[in-house]
Description:
By secondary structure, the protein is mostly beta strands. Helix content is 12%, strand content 42%. The chain has a single domain (3-209), classed as Sandwich (Jelly Rolls).
Amino acid sequence: MGMCSRRNNTILALAISSLMLLGACEEMTEVVPEQAEVPGTAKEAAAAADIEKYVILTGEHHATLSFENVALDQLKFNALFDSTAIYSTIDPANQADINKLYGMADCNSYHHTNSARFGWRWHEEQLEIWAYTYVNGERNSAFVDTVSLGVFNEYEISFEDNNYRFRLNEKEVEMPRQCEATAEGYKLFPYFGGDETAPHDISIWIEELKN
């Protein structure tokens, strides 16, 4: 086994161990992505596409605990939220917490060390989308735009030298990155929280696009 393989296995083991610790206070249920039954007018588009439905169950953080090692220069996908993205937190202060949509760990490190993903939250009666990163252990976020429920929008994260470029439709945000060249790590899937778990089942549809 080569050095890179041993390193990736170590990173993956650390990630799994950390997620197990996060779930120590409450049992987490794995939900395997299934072929989507997309609500509303998006059904016709879904029929011809490879779209996966992720469900964050009531009382859970994760939609899935699956891991997939990847090396990418760009992560591009379509995503749709339905009315289950509307929620109120128990503690009003937590309403501003950013949930996670999709992205990946980076720089061959644990995702709380280096990672880039889109975040989302229901805040002030609208669905906000954020750029959300960890850079050398420091968490950063930047507002990108709002999106409508029941509509697919196109998301893209480009991994540039020392720079992340987030794009949502026509809106772009740039954020610092710790490393250069191709991103190496593991995918990060939908997650609710923050401090609180999902107050009800939350459904998100994602279609990963080829570069």
